[in-house]
Amino acid sequence: MPLMDTNSDLLNRARRLLFSWAMRTRVGVWGDRSRISPPARIIGGDGVEIGERGTICEHAWLNTKGRRKDGKPALVISSGSYIGRFVQINAWHEVIIEQNVLIADRVYVSDSEHNFTDRQNPIRSQGESYKGAVRLRSGCWIGIGAVILPGVTVGRNSVVAANSVVREDVPDFTVVGGIPARILREV
Asked: What confidence tens digit (pLDDT) does each residue in 33-90 have?
């Protein structure tokens, strides 16, 4: 049995390396030793920059509309950051993930939201609008199932508890949790 696990691990590692090699040609910048696991998706890859030693897990979706008008990337994932399984990040203008950020599984991050002002048209056909930059500062940890809304900065080495909805900035070295998230304690 251990031999089967070893073979399976080797096969998965080979799949991840091949997939990473193929995906690196689809993004603006791809850092050394960064890995993405299939079947993750990157849409608008020229608007994505991934630093060194980054990890993007299975089924993650990274969505941009390409580079911004000023030529800068809409989504930056800095060195050493980890993006869990089934994470969705929508970066229409500016989502910055600093170094060594840990994003658990099933997290949603967006700098935009759907328009819904026209009562005569379905919301789906009204498009979306950029609402505010999102910044996840160095060393923060976003717990499983959390939602980070447009315009939010999560401070350095802060923790967002599982299943929280963050609507306001989180100070450095703070633990927040709840719906909406509120400060629970300092780190």
From this structure: 999 999 999 999 999 999 999 999 999 999 999 999 999 999 999 999 999 999 999 9
> Virtual CA dihedral for 166, 171, 176, 178, nearest 10 degrees?
-30
Cα 85 to the center of its chain, rounded Å = 10
CA-CA distance, 179 to 165, in Å (whole number)?
5
Catalytic residue among 13, 15, 33, 114: 114
Positions of E strands within 31-181: 35-36, 41-43, 48-50, 55-56, 61-64, 75-77, 82-83, 88-91, 95-97, 102-103, 108-110, 112-114, 128-130, 134-136, 141-142, 147-148, 153-154, 159-160, 165-166, 174-177
Long-range contacts formed by 5-10: CB under 8 A, 24+ apart: none
d(CA 37, CA 55): 8
Query: Which pTM does this prediction carry?
Result: 0.92
**In what helix (H) or strand (E) does residue 100 lie, and over which residues does it extend?**
none
How far is 166 from 151, CA to CA, in rounded Å? 10
Active site residue 114: yes
Quick check: helix, strand or coil at residue 75? strand
Region at 33 (left for phi over 0; alpha for psi -120 to 50; beta for the rest): left
